[in-house]
Amino acid sequence: MARKATGKHWQEGEANQSAATGPSQEPVIRLERHGDIVVIVPASEVESLQWGLIEQAAEIVLAPLKRQPASGVIVDLSQVSYFGSVFLSLLLRCYKLIRQQGGEMVLAAPSERARELLRLTAFDTIWPIYESRQEALVALID
Is there a contact between 27 and 39 (Cβ–Cβ < 8 Å)? Predict the structure, then answer.
C-alpha cells in the first residue's frame, strides 16, 4: 500500500507505486522497482515543494527502501529542470540510507542547470551521473 499526498495531508492509498502528489494531483515523486534496482522519478513539481511537504515525501520514498533494500538506486532527473536545497536534502537522505544498506545511488539525465548546481555544490563528486536512465541501469547491473 502506498501513501499519497493531497494538498498538505497524507492519506493511505491503494497505488502500486509510492507517490507524492502535487497541486495537479500528478505524482511528484514516483518509485519504480526493477528487480533489485529502484528508480526514483521526481516530476518537475519537485522544484517548488516546500520543506514540510518534502519531509513527508522523504518518508514515502525512504519507507519502501527500508522495508526492501535495493542494491542500486537511480534518481532519474529527466523531468526536473532545476532544484534547490530542499530536494538536495532528500537526495542526501536517500544516499545515506542506501549506503548504510550497502547499495549504490546514481543520478541520471540531469538538465544542464541541475548539472551545474551539482557541480557547484560538489555533489557531482558523490554520485555518478549518467546521461540516461538506461545508461545508469547498465552501470548498476555490471
Answer: no
Across the chain, which has 142 residues, the per-10-residue mean pLDDT values are 32 35 66 94 84 79 94 96 88 95 97 95 96 96 84
Distance between CA 138 and CA 2 in Å, rounded?
Answer: 28
Amino acid at 91: L
Q: Is 98 left (phi over 0), alpha (psi -120 to 50) or beta?
A: alpha
Closest CA relative to residue 33, chosen from 77, 69, 80: 69
The pTM for the full model equals 0.81
Beta pairing partners, 75: 40, 107
CB count in 10 Å sphere of residue 73:
26
